[in-house]
């Protein structure tokens, strides 16, 4: 807890230490420590301001186990993006339409629960990393690394660079 208090004091009002999805990924892949929480039961997007004051790096909004409307999730995304906390949505199921819906609402990442097959993982990754490509174009991007053009690939990499993709594997084969 003291570490979070220190982080909060160091953040202050200057915005120092505020992360986006791309910076969060780099910090984790570089062996850094990030702090976060999950909101499952709260139904008030006003939590954004409160959680932002704790100095957390990310928050996961649970839509798998909690009934949330699209507008409520969009309000959460706006609040957390404003406070500099990376908002990640735990989607109800590992399906591309949920991934893109929440990314379009302002999420900087998704946690896809209970992925059981390679195809489910590919679908979630394609929707997170290569949106708005869909169908055969998305499959070519994921499976073969092929894009309609090099410009398209560069555009999508830049457009989706802040998107975080977390895959949840919750069973043992």
Could you describe the 3D structure shown?
Belongs to the HpcH/HpaI aldolase family. InterPro entries: Aldolase/citrate-lyase_domain, HpcH-HpaI_aldolase, Pyrv/PenolPyrv_kinase-like_dom, Pyrv_kinase-like_dom_sf. GO terms for molecular function: aldehyde-lyase activity; metal ion binding. This is HpcH/HpaI aldolase/citrate lyase domain-containing protein. Keywords: Lyase, Metal-binding. It contains eight helices and five strands; from the N terminus they run H-H-E-H-E-H-E-H-E-H-H-H-E. Helix 3 links the parallel strand 1 and strand 2. It has 173 residues and is α/β, with parallel strands linked by helices. It has a domain of 121 residues: TIM Barrel, CATH 3.20.20.60. The radius of gyration is 17 Å and the shape is globular. Helix 3 runs parallel beside helix 4 and helix 5 packs parallel to helix 6.
- Termini gap: 37 Å
Strand order of the largest sheet: 1-2-3-4-5
Number of alpha- plus pi-helical segments: 8
Which geometry do the CA atoms define? globular
Gross CATH architecture of the domain at 2-117 and 163-167: Alpha-Beta Barrel
Q: Tell me how many strands there are.
A: 5
CATH topology of the domain at 2-117 and 163-167: TIM Barrel
What sequence of helices (H) and strands (E) makes up the elements? Answer: HHEHEHEHEHHHE
The structural class is: alpha/beta
Evaluate the radius of gyration: 17 Å
> What's the helical proportion of residues?
40-55%
Estimate the mean pLDDT confidence: 87
The parts where pLDDT drops under 50 for at least 5 residues are: 8-16
Major sheet attributes: 5 strands, parallel
Mind telling me the CATH superfamily name of the domain at 2-117 and 163-167? Phosphoenolpyruvate-binding domains
């Amino acid at each position: 807890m003291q570490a979070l208090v220190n982080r909060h004091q160091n953040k202050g009002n200057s915005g120092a230490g505020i992360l986006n999805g791309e910076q969060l990924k780099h910090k984790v892949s570089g062996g850094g420590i990030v702090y976060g929480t999950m909101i499952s039961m709260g139904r008030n997007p006003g939590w954004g301001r409160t959680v932002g004051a704790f100095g957390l790096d990310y928050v996961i909004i649970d839509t798998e186990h909690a009934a949330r409307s699209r507008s409520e999730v969009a309000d959460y995304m706006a609040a957390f993006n404003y406070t500099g906390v990376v908002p990640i949505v735990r989607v109800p199921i590992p399906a591309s339409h949920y991934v893109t819906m929440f990314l379009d609402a302002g999420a900087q990442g998704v946690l896809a629960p209970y992925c059981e097959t390679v195809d489910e993982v590919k679908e979630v990754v394609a929707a997170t990393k290569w949106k708005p490509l869909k169908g055969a174009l998305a499959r070519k991007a994921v499976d073969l690394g092929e894009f309609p053009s090099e410009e398209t690939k560069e555009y999508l990499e830049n457009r989706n660079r802040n998107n975080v993709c977390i895959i949840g594997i919750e069973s043992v084969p």
